[in-house]
Amino acid sequence: MRYLSLSLVVVVLVATIGLGWVFDFVYQQYSDPKQSPSEDKIEYAEILTKKMAVALSSSNNANAFITAWQANDGYSLQIDSINSLALPAPLLSDLRLGKSLNIESDSDLNIHYAIPNSSDVLILQIPYTIEDNKKFINRYWVTSLFYLLLIVLFLLWAKPLISRLINLRETAKAFGKGELSQRITVGKVSYISDLESEFNHMAQRIEDLVSDVKLLSTAVSHDLRTPLARIRMGLDTLSEEEEPAQRRVYEKRINAHIDDMVELVETLLAYARLDQSMLAIEKTSIDLFALTEKIIKNKQKERPAEHDKSILLEADASLAHCFAVGDNTYLKMLVNNLLLNAIQHSKTTVLVKICCRPNSLVLVVEDDGDGIPEDIKVDLFKPFVRSKANKNKGHGVGLAICKRIVQWHQGSITVEKSEQLKGAKFIVNLPSVEN
């Protein structure tokens, strides 16, 4: 919207100042400099009327002078009583004080001047000449052309704006009808590029939420049905069993299935609340290397059974002055989920690399596991998507949470095959700042 405001200011300045200067320059170039301006003619006529009025005040035959004057090139004189003029009192007062009064009509200009020592007024009638009319018409056409070009200039400015707004309206209508894949192509020169980008961001988020709802409903119907069936079968078996030791075994199994259900429900609720909680994220400068190093140390302490798996951390020299811009809690969740995923699928080694790029930090997590199966590669970052060959405990939400966190930080996350370790390789780009 800043571009819209700036372009509007530029158009207004160009239209009013630029066009005005151009027309003024052209008019001065092509107007006749030898012709006296009409203001000067009026001034001369006022002086002439005053002098004649003074002369007539001392003349004994004013009417003869008036009669003889009528033959002079259309300029006519007449004498009227000042009391017979239908004029407001202030104007009559000005006349009596010796001021001239000019009254214009469609065809002429009447200059009034009171005759000294008399109650009469001398009136000089000056008809408009063809030349004056032509000059008036020329000025009229120049003014009309100025406003016409002004309107054209504003229409040229408004045309792309109207076009983009119509495109936005049509896309919004299609999106409202359920075509959730509709997006606006943000033009390089667009007054509302910020609005279009925000619309695309909103549309993408809505599409993701709708997709998540579908996946959540599928997960609930599938993942909850299995432990419920096991619990039902366990309860039926338990009611038929009379041996105390065997009953305790069945009770433990039922409790384990209940724990799985509780864990699944908590996972569903946590993922459903993720979007709402991330609306209030507070972005600060985060030392991603120190954060990752701390998480790795905690992982090694929490999982003593996996000490045989080595977690390596590498960073380039420029990282000392490069910090990620984000929320500490969610960046910690991001790194933790990526490490947990890599540890579960690795055989012996997990490698973490952090490097600094212009305006971004790159976090790379790779392992020496079997890599990403082709059957889930496209839907890898969707919730509750798990490979059939994956025997690790979980519900397939960790990478979906990573995707959502990266999106909220205006970053990106991709996956590919690791050239070094031959397993999976996750690459995260986050906004950064130099300190």
Could you say which structural class the secondary elements and strand pairing correspond to?
Answer: alpha+beta
Order of helices and strands: HHHEHEEEHHHHEHEEHEEHEE
Instruction: Tell me the major beta sheet.
Output: 7 strands, mixed
How much beta, percentage-wise? 15-25%
CATH architecture assignment of the largest domain: 2-Layer Sandwich
* Overall shape: rod-shaped
Question: Any low-confidence stretches, pLDDT <50, length ≥5?
Answer: 32-37
**Fraction of residues in H or I helices:** 40-55%
Q: What's the rounded overall pLDDT mean? A: 79
The structural domain count equals: 3
N/C terminus separation: 30 Å
- Number of strand segments: 11
Number of helices: 11
Characterization of this structure:
With 435 residues, the protein is of the alpha+beta class. The protein has three domains: 91 residues, 2-Layer Sandwich (Beta-Lactamase), CATH 3.30.450; 87 residues, Helix Hairpins, CATH 1.10.287; 151 residues, Heat Shock Protein 90 (2-Layer Sandwich), CATH 3.30.565.10. The protein is built from eleven helices and eleven strands. The strands form two sheets. Strands 5, 6, 7, 8, 9, 10 and 11 form a seven-stranded mixed sheet that branches. Strand 8 and strand 9 form a beta hairpin. The longest helix is centred in the middle third of the chain and has 47 residues.
